[in-house]
């Protein structure tokens, strides 16, 4: 028997056991995705129906101010969240990598917010940022009566309030990913850098960070995909307000049109655009992780 048939028969029990999972993935995920894209070109209202409308739903989508505002909000929140989450997560991982005492305790404390749902996080931070009994009221009780901190009730600052809550929940997870990457660096590299007299900060910038490229790319993809699906946090903290659309995000647009406005075609079109944005993130990552290695 040649090597190829022998490799195909290897671990046959595991491959057979994986068939139901593979079929479920194909039917539910791939089938559901195709179904959504197909019906985004119809004029489905309360119930899906195959009456073609061409690009009408997409033209209406990109001509709606609410959708455009939600895209702008997501871009602002996404860029700020990516930059600060990865930067803060890496800095915390560097501090944690110094073999500090009670590291397990600190790591658990930092990772705990990630175990909470976005709904819980949103409700907690809605209370913390409430001017009547949150940070503003506490600081005023200390004597600074003119202190003002009410980000969720102003259209100009509401996204910063959401960003605070998002960073609180996601930074610990990024820290753990970065810490795992740092622990994978060979200790001999650090010894060689010390012998050569290279400053610690320069070792991180010139040597360590480039070696952790795969960790940074993976973290970027995980965080970006979560940002695109942002919904729970906004609903719990602001419900899209204040002022109507100040904190609207695409996922809220999809939900409202599919389940409240009873316009499935418009909801499917918005869902397809969200899927496209996810693919824009995943395809370059897949190429860097698999295609680049293959060509190398």
Summary keywords:
296 residues; 72% helix; globular; MetI-like fold; mainly alpha
What is the gist of this entry?
With 296 residues, the protein is mostly helical. Helices cover 72% and strands 0% of the residues. Helix 3 crosses helix 14 and helix 4 runs parallel beside helix 8.
Strand content: under 5%
Using only C-alpha atoms, the radius of gyration works out to 24 Å
- Give the low-pLDDT segments: none
Name of the CATH class: Mainly Alpha
Name of the CATH superfamily:
MetI-like
End-to-end Cα distance: 32 Å
- What proportion of the residues is helical, as a percent range? over 70%
Based on DSSP secondary structure assignment, what is the total number of beta strands? 0
In round numbers, the mean pLDDT is 88
Shape: globular
> What summary fits the major beta sheet?
none
Number of helices: 14
CATH structural fold name: MetI-like fold
Number of domains: 1
Order of helical and strand elements: HHHHHHHHHHHHHH
Overall structural class, as computed from helix and strand content, comes to mainly alpha
Q: What is the oligomeric state here?
A: single chain
Reported CATH architecture: Orthogonal Bundle
């Amino acid at each position: 028997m040649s090597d190829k048939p022998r490799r195909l028969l290897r671990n046959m029990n595991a491959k057979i056991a994986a068939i139901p999972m593979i079929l479920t993935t194909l039917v539910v995920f791939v089938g559901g995705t195709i179904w959504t894209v197909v019906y985004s070109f119809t004029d489905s209202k309360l119930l899906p129906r195959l009456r073609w409308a061409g690009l009408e739903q997409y033209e209406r989508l990109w001509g709606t101010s609410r959708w455009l505002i939600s895209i702008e909000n997501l871009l602002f929140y996404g860029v700020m969240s990516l930059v600060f989450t990865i930067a803060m997560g890496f800095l915390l991982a560097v501090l944690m990598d110094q073999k500090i005492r009670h590291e397990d305790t600190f790591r658990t404390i930092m990772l705990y917010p990630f175990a909470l749902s976005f709904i819980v996080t949103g409700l907690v931070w809605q209370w913390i940022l409430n001017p009547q009994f949150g940070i503003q009221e506490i600081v005023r009780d200390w004597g600074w009566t003119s202190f003002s901190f009410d980000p969720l009730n102003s259209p100009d600052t509401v996204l910063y309030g959401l960003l605070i809550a998002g960073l609180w929940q996601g930074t610990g997870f990024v820290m753990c990913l970065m810490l795992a990457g740092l622990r994978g660096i060979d200790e001999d590299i650090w010894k060689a850098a010390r012998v050569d007299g290279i400053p610690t900060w320069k070792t991180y910038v010139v040597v360590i960070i480039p070696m952790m490229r795969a960790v940074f790319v993976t973290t970027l993809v995980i965080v970006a995909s979560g940002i695109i699906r942002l919904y729970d946090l906004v609903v719990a903290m602001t419900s899209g307000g204040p002022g109507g659309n100040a904190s609207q995000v695409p996922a809220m647009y999809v939900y409202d049109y599919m389940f409240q406005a009873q316009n499935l075609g418009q909801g499917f079109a918005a869902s397809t655009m969200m899927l496209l944005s996810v693919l824009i993130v995943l395809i370059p990552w897949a190429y860097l992780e698999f295609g680049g290695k293959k060509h190398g």
